[in-house]
Structures are given as structure tokens and as C-alpha cells.
Specification:
about 70 residues, mainly alpha, rod-shaped
């Protein structure tokens, strides 16, 4: 059985380094994207809460109008 040549080992090592660098960059991009989605989610949750509060306020006002004597 032939042992791998130094040239073959260097080639494999270069391939591994390239794969590592691609994976590292992809991981960095995924982390940035995840952070962006988390910020967007937080913003949407805040908007949802504001809308919920406005609707609750409108419903309260409508109930008050229902109970006022008609003129």
C-alpha cells in the first residue's frame, strides 16, 4: 500500500482549510442574519402590542358610548 505523498497531503490540507474558511464565513453570515431576524421579531412584537393596546382602548370607549344616555 502506497503512503500518500507530501503533495497529496498538502492538497488535502489546502482543501480542508478552504472548506473551514467557507464554513466560518457561512456561520458568520448566519449569525448576522439570525440577529437581524431577532431584531425584526422584537419590532413586530412591539407593533403588535401597540395595536392591541389601541384596540383595547377603542373597545373601552365604545362600551362607554353604549352606556351613555341617548339624547
Amino acid at each position: 500500500m502506497d503512503s500518500p505523498s507530501l503533495k497529496d497531503i498538502n492538497k488535502k490540507l489546502d482543501e480542508l482549510i478552504s472548506a473551514y474558511q467557507r464554513t466560518k464565513e457561512e456561520n458568520r453570515m448566519l449569525k448576522a442574519e439570525t440577529e437581524s431576524w431577532q431584531h425584526e421579531r422584537q419590532r413586530l412584537l412591539q407593533q403588535n402590542e401597540l395595536a392591541r393596546n389601541k384596540i383595547a382602548e377603542m373597545l373601552s370607549r365604545l362600551k362607554l358610548l353604549e352606556h351613555e344616555p341617548n339624547e
